[in-house]
Amino acid sequence: MIAKVDTTSRPPAPPAGEHWLPVRPRLVVASAFMLFLELALIRWTGSNIVHLSYFTNFVLLGSFLGIGLGFLRVGRATRQPFYSPVVLAILVLVVMFFPVTVNRETEGILYFTSLSTSGPPAWAILPVVFAAAALVLMGPAELVGGCFPELPRLEAYRYDLIGSLTGIAAFSLMSYAGAPPVAWGLVTACAYGALLQPRSTVRYLAFVTVPSLVVVGALAMETLTPGTLWSPYYKVKYEHASWYGTPLLNISVNGIPHQQATPADYRLKYERQYALPYERSAAAGRLDDVLIVGAGSGTDVAIALAKGAKHVDAAEIDPRLRELGGAFHPDRPYDDPRVTTHITDGRAFLEATGKKYDLILFALPDSLTLVSGASSLRLESYLFTEDALRAARAHLKPGGAFSMYNYYREQWLVDRLAATAQAAFGHKPCVDQVGAGQQAVITAGLTTDAQRCGAEWPGPRAGTPAPATDDRPFLYLHGRDIPSIYLIALGLILLVSVLAVRVVAGPFRRMRPYADLCLLGVSFLLLETKSVTGFALLFGTTWVVNAIVFAGVLVAVLAAVEVTRRFRTPPLPVMYAVLFGGLVLAAVVPNSWLLGLPVPARAVLAVAVAFLPIFAANVVFAKRFAETADPTVSFGANLLGAIVGGCLEYLALVIGYQGLLAVAGLIYLGAFALLPRAARAA
For labelling, which of 178, 395, 516, 681 has a CA lying 20 to 30 Å from the CA of 351? Predict the structure, then answer.
């Protein structure tokens, strides 16, 4: 007979405090604030520190460390965490008034940024931002952790999850509305004011009110800067200019020049690469349907119209860039009735549409940020794989052609993309290199008769990397390894984490009984990363998909908690068997098969495959957590394990995202081996 874990008995509660909020709503508010602040930090620091948008995972890891330390401080500290608003105010002031730019030069990986960027190396500045994020998040986590001893284990976890979902929903709604940072600062100030309750009015003013006003004031200054917009991905700045009488709109994102809205005739006259896709395509004389991925502010759309396109589908992932093009582009291409706009990820549009085109153009769709929650996946990563170019080929009409152009900077990158086109189309493409900076145009017809090359491409040079794939979509990574910039920064982060845990929590023996919970945290982060990247491939790398996936993970965790609280669940060995079965299922169902299904069926099966192991893993965690003697230390150990999991995400650079499932499975085996004998027999 299966024994039901008793989760209804209340542990001894600490003496009642003087907080004006009862424990349950306080726990929900504190948890919501913790998630909201984490997302806001990732978003804001990436917009203001050049190149940090390529390392958002480091802010996430810092947040995990801070949250874990906050839980471990519960019971060891008597004062409220006034340090959190103070550190946040210092971080905001330093970033705004003493800007840090990270040198773009690094080994083995490319970043598309301003060539004039300079500053300290990334391995030096990333741990600093990591430590600041940890200190800021440690405060709200301490407030959350302080509520846990006052409630039964799983009830506290339940309210923590409800608060986390609330925080994600609030930040997502503000992103949808285009809320600027001052709005995030106001939410943060109100949360600090509501949750921190010092006994001294002077202390409250000095450590809560003044830092909160500093944060709101600094963010208000940034918000009121003329020509500044906030998209769900970037801080967008624009300015009107002219060049010998030609009107221009210069657009930068996250401090980096990104686009320039100019008349079509100007581009065609002075920059040959914009005309070459039409010269190399045999279908240029009958452009009934054109697809432009990365339509941006509209210049490429204007050129397609100027070349006689009868209809243009313009796919652009960033709504603010599209709005700027609609409002200010000199040619007003988005007002033309021949143009249909799609605010979505280009790969997702290709996988969802049944339409075919005479010309498909990837128009400089390089991004300046990563998909949140994934260590190395950029917004455009799934556009430049061999699988993506095969999808483009499948959407060409007879005689149609595919083309892409950019400033590639490295010859091996030009050769790699040309080789990718050759593998996808079955013949050599046209490769034109023009101007300086390795500008190149790569055009491939559906057949060789559908392309008009100026000269035959000689093929890739020796040492050119193989085409990127959907499982390992790292176009700008030259080798099959982890670049030294990541290894150094991750090593420093792990060192700082170990020292911080020892200083804050005391001897590690406090967490020794919960080693299996720590490993559960490691594996869960790998599962979450696999889910984020998988859904990004299946449904797009948009912020909406990302938010839904994170919310879905929390819903799966909440469902596991509710099932464990309300029903008799199988013993832990059985649940581990279900977990391993879910991992095997996720490993054997390829994304390529799911992509071939209609979107509704794809969604249902993708959710089932991705969330079965997540659900099973969290039933394991909930059952184990309900039996722990110290809820805050055990929960903190689990969160600290997430830091190691976040570091192990970078193994995907070597083994691919599918390989992360095998790593997660091995770590879950370790967690099962460390399971206490009593818990295994219960």
Answer: 178
Q: How far apart are CA 310 and CA 326, in angstroms?
A: 19
Measured in whole angstroms, the distance separating CA 241 from the mean position of its chain's CA atoms is 33
Q: Which amino acid is at 571?
A: P
Cβ contacts of 253 within 8 Å, gap of 6 or more: 231, 233, 234, 235, 236, 237, 368
Q: Hey, which residues does 235 pair with through a beta bridge?
A: 230
State how far the Cα of 310 lies from the Cα of 305, in Å rounded to an integer.
7
Residue-wise pLDDT for 357-389, tens only, equals 999 999 988 766 666 655 577 888 899 999 999
For 246, the enclosing helix (H) or strand (E) is: strand 246-253
pLDDT digits 0-9 by tens, 377-424: 788 889 999 999 999 999 999 999 999 998 887 888 899 999 999 999
**pLDDT over threshold 90, residue 135:** yes
Give CATH for domain 262-366+386-450. 3.40.50.150
CATH of region 23-226+484-681? 1.20.1250
Question: Can you give the residue ranges of every domain in the chain?
Answer: 23-226+484-681, 262-366+386-450
- H or E segment and range at residue 487: helix 484-505
pTM for the whole thing? 0.88
- Which parts of 329-483 are beta strand (E)? 339-343, 357-363, 396-407, 430-434, 439-445
Q: Is 40 exposed, middle or buried (0-12, 13-18, 19+ CB in 10 A)?
A: buried
HSE-up of 554 (CA within 13 Å, CB side)?
A: 21
Strand pairing report for 290-293 and 339-343: unpaired
Question: 206, 223 in Cβ contact below 8 A?
Answer: no
Place of tokens 């790699």: 416
pLDDT band at 9 (very low <50, low <70, confident <90, very high): very low
